[in-house]
C-alpha cells in the first residue's frame, strides 16, 4: 500500500508543479514536471511487479524500474538546474 500511496502522491505533485508553472507563466516549472515522469514510471513498475506477487515472468520490470530511477535522477537534476538558471536570469533582468 505504501507504493500505491507514493504513486498517487507523485502524480499529485507533478500536477501541482505543472499548475504552478501555468499560473506563474514560468515554463521552467513545466520542465520540472516533465523531469518527474521517469521516477513516476519507475514507481509504477514497482507497484505492478509487487501487485503480481513478484512473479519471475515480470522480472524485466525490476530492470525497467532501475533504469527509470537512473534516468529520473538525471532528469530531476537537469530540471533543478533549469529552475536555478531561470531564477538567476529573472533576477538579473529586474
UniProtKB/TrEMBL annotation:
<keyword id="KW-1133">Transmembrane helix</keyword>
<dbReference type="Pfam" id="PF10693">
    <property type="entry name" value="DUF2499"/>
</dbReference>
<dbReference type="InterPro" id="IPR019634">
    <property type="entry name" value="Uncharacterised_Ycf49"/>
</dbReference>
<keyword id="KW-0472">Membrane</keyword>
<feature type="transmembrane region" description="Helical">
    <location>
        <begin position="35"/>
        <end position="52"/>
    </location>
</feature>
<feature type="transmembrane region" description="Helical">
    <location>
        <begin position="6"/>
        <end position="23"/>
    </location>
</feature>
<keyword id="KW-0812">Transmembrane</keyword>
<feature type="transmembrane region" description="Helical">
    <location>
        <begin position="58"/>
        <end position="84"/>
    </location>
</feature>
<protein>
    <recommendedName>
        <fullName>Ycf49-like protein</fullName>
    </recommendedName>
</protein>
